[in-house]
Each structure stands twice: as structure tokens, then as C-alpha cells.
């Protein structure tokens, strides 16, 4: 198995684990829930608190066919729009978007 395939499977397992785990913080869970509602066709949504625990900086990975035909800037704008109320309280956000592989 290539590293790329391994990493992809690891991310999917992480998404499943975070969906049912108590490990996630309340802000991570809230952000994930909002993104799942906004992007119901997403095959991957991963939200990580990268602030060191204060809950003010997040890294977000979203893979969905709903980004088809949109450049990266427009994809990120859609994510920003979905999280407009939460972003007000953040120090920073890293957004990574992609389309599912066929």
C-alpha cells in the first residue's frame, strides 16, 4: 500500500473516530456538525484544534463533490461562509479542500 493510500485511509478512520469519540472538544464537534450540514455529500470532514487547547485555531480538511467546478478560493469561501459565526471567535483557521477521487 502506498503512503498516499495509507494516509487517505487513516484520515477516513480519523473522521469516523472523531465522529463517535469523546476526544474532540466542543468547538471541534460544533464545527464538524455545521460542516456536515452545509456539505452533506462530504466523504471526509476532519477538524483539529491546533491552538494547543484553547480552541481558537483550527485546521479543517473537507473532501466533497460539492466543490466540483469551483476553484480553491471559491471552495474556501463556501467553508468560510458556513462557519461565519464561529470564525468571529477564532484566532486562525487553516482550510484544506479537495474533490473525491473516482
Automatic annotation (TrEMBL):
Leader peptide range in chain numbering: none
Pfam families, alphabetized: BolA
InterPro entries assigned: BolA, BolA-like_sf, Mt_Fe-S_assembly_factor
Assigned GO CC terms: mitochondrial matrix
Family, as annotated: Belongs to the BolA/IbaG family.
PANTHER family for this protein: BOLA-LIKE PROTEIN 3
Name this polypeptide is given: BolA-like protein 3
Organism name: Oppiella nova
Taxonomic lineage from the root: Eukaryota, Metazoa, Ecdysozoa, Arthropoda, Chelicerata
Amino acid at each position: 500500500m502506498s503512503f498516499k493510500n495509507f494516509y487517505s485511509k487513516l484520515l477516513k478512520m480519523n473522521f469516523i473516530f472523531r465522529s463517535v469519540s469523546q476526544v474532540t472538544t466542543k468547538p471541534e464537534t460544533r464545527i464538524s456538525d455545521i460542516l456536515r450540514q452545509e456539505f452533506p455529500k462530504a466523504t471526509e470532514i476532519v477538524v483539529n484544534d491546533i491552538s494547543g487547547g484553547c480552541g481558537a485555531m483550527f485546521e479543517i480538511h473537507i473532501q466533497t463533490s460539492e466543490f466540483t467546478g469551483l476553484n480553491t478560493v471559491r471552495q474556501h469561501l463556501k467553508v468560510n461562509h458556513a462557519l461565519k459565526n464561529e470564525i468571529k471567535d477564532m484566532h486562525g483557521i487553516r482550510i484544506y479542500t479537495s474533490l473525491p477521487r473516482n
